[in-house]
Each structure stands twice: as structure tokens, then as C-alpha cells.
Amino acid sequence: MAQEISPMRRNLTFGLMFLVAILSYVDRQIFTLFQDDIKLELGLNDGQLGLLTGMSFALFYAIAAFPIARYADRGDRRLVVALCVMVWSAATALCGVANSFWQMVLARIGLAAGEAGAGPASISLLTEIFPPERRTIVISSMLAASAIGISAGLWLAGWLSQFFNWREVFLIVGLPGILIGLAVWLFSAEPRRGKGDVVVPPQQIGMAEVMRTMAGNVSLRWVGLLLIMVPVTGFAFIIWGASFFQRVHGMTKAETGFWLGTAMAVGLVIGNLAAGWVADKWGKDNPRFNGWFAGLGLLAAFPLAMLFVYSANPYVALACFVGMKFVMTLHLGPIIALSFAQVPVAMRAMMSATINMLIGLAGTGVGGTLTGFLSEAYAPGFGEMSLRPALATLSCCLIVGGIAAIMAGRTAKPLKEHIVEA
């Protein structure tokens, strides 16, 4: 199938999908930079703000992801991506005209539903139009787009904040995305277009079977605990980091966008690259090494998180943030490799989807929401500094996650088929 599409068309399609992947995180991060302004203008408390940034997004993201992905396996993926981009871009623009908590909730639900479908459909399309020897780099590049989007969202929002209010920024960022969706529809390659009936893929293993497999495997139960604990802390810092620097250190939005965006880019990108290199070199056939490597990184992240929270100097806090994100990021690649070694090859795709679902619900959903409610609970005693004890409390999840990673490695039992392959 890859041979039927010209290199220029493949590269154009990749460029559009890469842009879509960046844009999805840009739209999310803009909200985090302006959430204190939104809180003030709409008369919200931190608990309601946590629901907006957390559970209202994560829950509908998880609900929408699987049915859209199932359609994308059978239908026109170019159309799926285009419509998803248009939906979430329109929802981003609608955030700029929301006048109440519930109007903002509805806009965030639209944002989540749109973003949930674009990722699986774009990966499915790209892995079909590129030859096998280029698929790994294509997938890795798409994953890297998330780190770029997280940072770019903060950079862009910080820059725009110098000239426009939050409502205008949402409109400025949201509306052009509709044109990007149209470009995806007009110019992306889709091998299925005009082919008549689409061949239905073989029956896939369902999520229920993946969950039963995880429940019946000691090592994967520890992995499940890790996938709940670590994202709670990680996403709490990502979602509330901008508010933290504005409230605790008095940074402007422009300063916060630049410095926090840069810190996230450095920590996430270097961490992902280092994790992949180390896991490939020493952990490929050694689940115990992967567990210890991931666990020690998470345990090292705890003191850095506490230093970040309680440092009096914003630039020391930023340095701690870079270090914390770096060592936290070391866990995911090795843990995924450890998990894949213990399930059949036919279950790996659904295992990946399940891992992503757990990370999203625990991280954006629980982490983002719980931080808001904890900040609200601490407010009577700490005032504007209430995010400090809130984030410090959730940092304790890193210790649980580190122990879970080590135990997952100690109890891992790779399947014989993977040992033979090695």
C-alpha cells in the first residue's frame, strides 16, 4: 500500500498529522495558563477549576476514544482526523465566549471528544502509508509532537497574553484550526479512498480481556498501580504549574509561558530520549532492569518535586522542575516494554490503548481535579499559597509509583514466545 502513494504525498500527510498532534496539546495548555483569569471572571473556586481542567476533559476523552478508533479501523481516517480537528478547534474558540461554569464544561467536552479521535486515526493512517522500515521513526516523531505541543502552547499563550485577553486568545488559537482540519481533508493521503468496501480487520482483543490479563498477572498488577499513581502527580504539575508560578512566585503570564514551556520541553524531550536509549541498550531482555530503572527514577523525582514546591526562588524551582520531569519521564518506555513482554503480540495494541486510558483518567482526570479540591481545602490556612501543600501532598504518589515499578520488574515473567524471539 505504501508503494502506491508518492513520497511527496506521504511527507505532506505526515507533516499535516504532525501539525495536528502539536495543535491538540497547544489547545490544552492555553487553558492552563489562563485558568486563574477564567476562575476570576466566571466566579469559580479551585475545585471547579480542577473539574474543568481534569475530569470533565479526561472522562469524555476516554469515552470518545474507543468508538472513534473502531470506526477509524474500518473507515476514512483522513475524514476522522479532519472532523476531529474541526470539532476541537471550534470548541477551543467556544471556550472564549463561555459565560458560566457549565458553558465552559460543554466546551471542554467538545475539546476532549475531538482530540480523542485524531490520535489513533492519524497513527493508523501513517503506519499504512509509510514502509515498515520507516514506521518506528514516524511513530516516535508523533509522540515527540506531544512534548512540542505542551511547550508551544505555553509559549504561544504567554506571548499572546501581552496583547490580548484570555477570551481573544482562545478565539485566535481556535478558529485557524478549522482551516487545518480542512487542509487534512483536502490534501492527506488515504489508501482506502475510492476503494469501495473497506476490508474489516480481524477480530481484535477487547479491553475486558486486557484487564483480566492484568488482574491475573502479579507484575501487571504492580504496573496498574504505577499507571494510576504516577500520572496523578505528573499531570497535577503540568496542569497547575502555570497557576503555581503566577500565584506563588508572582510571574507574569508571558514569563510563565516562556520559562515553564522551556522547562517542560527540556525535561520531557531529554527524558524520553534517554529512557528509550537505556531501555534498548540494557533492558530489552531484562524486565528486572526496566523495573529498577523506572523505580529509581520515580523515587529520585520525589525530593525534586518537594524542592520545586517549597523553593523560594522561581528559577531554582524551574531547575527542579526540569530535573523532576526528566527522571519521571524515564519510567514510561521501560514499563511499556516490561508490560509488552508479558502479553501475546496480538494483545499489544489493546494493551497500549488501555495504558493510555489509565494514564489519561488518572493523570488529567484525577490529578488535575484532585489538585483543585486540595488547593481549595488548604486555602483557609495557606491563602494564595494553597497550591504548595496541594502539590506536595500529591507528590507522595511518586514513592508509591517507584516501589510499584521495582516490584513489577521483580515479579515479571516474560512469555516464552518473546524469549524465543530474542
Automatic annotation (TrEMBL):
GO molecular function: transmembrane transporter activity
Membrane topology note: Multi-pass membrane protein
Name recorded for this polypeptide: MFS transporter
SUPFAM superfamilies (UniProt xref): MFS general substrate transporter
Residue ranges constituting the Major facilitator superfamily (MFS) profile domain according to the UniProt record: 13-413
Transmembrane annotation, as ranges: 52-72, 79-99, 105-126, 138-157, 169-187, 222-245, 257-279, 291-310, 316-341, 353-375, 387-408
Subcellular location: Membrane
PROSITE patterns xrefs: MFS
Chief localisation class: membrane
A GO cellular component entry from the record: membrane
Entries under PANTHER family matching the protein: PROTEIN SPINSTER, SPINSTER
Domain of life: Bacteria
Lineage: Bacteria, Pseudomonadati, Pseudomonadota, Alphaproteobacteria, Sphingomonadales
Keywords: Membrane, Transmembrane, Transmembrane helix, Transport
Pfam family, one: MFS_1
